[in-house]
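Page 37, top half.
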Amino acid sequence: MLAAKLGVRRIPGKGASVNVPVDAEDDGEFVSTAEAAATDRDAPALGVKAMTLVKYTKRVELSVELLEDEDSRIMAFLDDFVGRGMAKTHNNLLLTEVGTNGAALLTFAGGAVIADGEPEAMVGNDNLSGYLDDSASVAWVTRSSTHWKIMALKGDARKYAGMPQALPAGQLSLLGYPMHYSNSVATPALGAKSLFFGNWNYVGMREAPGFTVLRDPYSLANKGQIVLHYYFRAVYGVLQAEAIGYGQHAAA
């Protein structure tokens, strides 16, 4: 699940909705103050991000015969199947939120390609620069195919001198920042958002406690079926649009 890898901020709270305070300005510096002088009064331009949990569900119907067939290992298969489905759903929610409420860091000149120098322009975005000091949460997300097309632009791994951070051996990267893959990202195409970058700690995530599994032997008992219900509740929200964003291809 991308949220765990990227350092997405977990938002505590009880109930369906939580209002998260967010900073709506780009300053906040301290002011030098002479001895015995009055301190500087600061009044943050606070906004509020409402994060309301949404329920996501899945239902699986199985025959009694299949469940009783130990050799099929159907429950082990379902554990993996449902777990991967949950992770894909979380990834899609995260990237949809950033694509909707994050910053448009760059419009790619090509309708279906990313050109040499355009990833550098995303990293060099002035508004984003103040959020790149938290190395644990700064990363790229795209499709594997898109990443390797970018890597092939210069015919090497695009490893330049003076990279911002030392990455672990085997860590996929671009311009010195970790790269993560997800097929929830669009492929390069007209108007598509095919490359995400920024400080993911400025995205909030809420989850309801626990993941519910309900085994229902009654609803379809007349057909010899057992119904397994799965559901969880979650929500994502961009907390600082300047800190996270995407590259989008030209619409025409």
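Page 37, bottom half:
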Amino acid sequence: MKRTAALLLLALASSLATAQLDPKNLPDFPSEQWFSLARTSTGYLAGGNLAGTLWAFHVRGDELKKLGEGDPPTFAINGVLLQVKAVSRTVLETGRGGILQAHKKYEQGHQAQTSKGVAFGDHDLCRNAAVPHQQWIARAPSGLTQAFVTFEVGDYVLMVVSAYEDEKRRQAVVRAVDDLCRSFKREKAS
């Protein structure tokens, strides 16, 4: 398992030209947990093992703040709030459009029930992703906007959410989401 995780991290490192990762400096990444977070020379590497499928992404930044130890993991990199959640495909009704579309419908339905007045729209923050994904935004009447990006990872949908309330914060979220989308990798564990 450690060999597979090391191979995934090396593959990730070789594809992250924008992050300028040095494979010699990659941490010994836990391959048994569904979520881990580790420091790199240019930022932070999030990744894990979801029922036999390894996944990882990198976000550039100098400062990490973990916001509790709960589930789902929530943290901030250079002030950009990120929350990572794994949703089992067993709770989703798949139809036309595949698992990512089914999750989007499921998540938006849940938000519409729990947040009065929320409006949904599209965004293209993840336009540079190399793997299939789904993306959307949810705007609350209060002015808070959440950007959602999802990826299929084995039997799960991995959802990453980031929030902003003004243009300055939006620009920071744009950069962080672009980093994670450009760098996102997944691979079956051997």
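Margin note: Confidence is low (pLDDT under 50) at residues 3-26.
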